[in-house]
Amino acid sequence: MALEGQIRKMLSKVIDPELGKNIVEAGMVREIQVEGDRAEITLALTTGDCPLKARLQQETAAAARAVQGIDQADVRLKVMNREERQHLMSRLSPTMKMNRVGRMVAVMSGKGGVGKSSVTALLAALLQRQGFQVGVLDADVTGPSIPKLFGITGPVSGTPMGIVPIETQTGIKVISTNLMLPEEDLAVIWKGPIVSNTIKQFWTDVSWGKLDYLLLDLPPGTSDATLTVMQAMPLDGVVMVTTPQSLSSMVVRKTVHMSQELDTPILGIVENMSYFIAPDTGKRYDIFGSSHTDQIAEAAGSPLLGQLPIDPEFTRLADTGEIERYDHQVCSGLISSFLDHVPAAEPKTYLPWLEQDS
User: Fold this and answer.
1) Which H or E element spans position 86?
2) Residues 303-319: pLDDT tens digits?
3) How far apart are CA 165 and CA 248, in angstroms?
4) Which tops the pLDDT comparison, 260 or 129?
5) What is the residue range of 83's domain?
6) Which of 98, 183, 307, 349 counts the most CB atoms within 10 A of its CB?
7) What is the bridge-based pairing of β-strands 15-16 and 134-138?
8) 215 and 182 in contact (C-beta within 8 Å)?
């Protein structure tokens, strides 16, 4: 295969987060020229004001240099004309033209068992209680637990405008693989590419409508699924969940470094299972020892949003699908801190160029 063809094939791995498509499929790659070990690529953006142009330029150059024989890659930027934008728009799913989301925030952790999904569900419930319109995308495709926490079941239904998410008792919109299975305890045995494509479809093919916040519950660690979300979706940032012990902190620092390498803002840290208050004496016990979360916050350059206790009432409500009823005194501090650092924004389509005429 000629070098131009190899480069084009490699560029098909570069995803435009606004479109949910790779730059080749989106018709953004105008020209590829190769002279010796140097490649020059012309990339057509949907708009000259594209906020992601620097990122797309860097990723395009990096993808070209990954081809054997190419040591240098220059990327020139142009802007699509009206006809090209209209052609691209005609190929987008109807849901992408209708969904309007203010903030897209991923909740992640370095390891399992720290209560990441519980924190995601709690944040969603608290935001909804504040009067915001909220959605939860369960990106933990092979280990989904969000539906159980909210006490909802499928199946989801499809319409010509996309998949319709299930709503919780208070109106939180949820999509999850467990809402598509005939039985909630069936195993999802999928390979990485299928998992990644499913997560993308949860964003592009689901009729979210208008949301103030869309929270994404990521699988633990730095897997392909997490990489897909960070590279192929227009995140505003991530919230890290950890527990006090040193082991958890060490592993979470890996996800901090991953976020920093991918230029994904870390909006804050939540420490779960921080302590236990004995109901008979009111005495506090640090069951997992002294907290090391301040070290994570320092490494991330991010604030500590809150410390959540081990609370049997929280466990009971989570197990019975009634997490939206949880109302501990720490909740007001958590949501206040979250809103201070992740304030609501005017819902946007993430496709501002759709309405451009020239």
Assistant:
1) helix 82-91
2) 999 999 999 999 999 99
3) 33
4) 129
5) 3-91
6) 307
7) unpaired
8) no
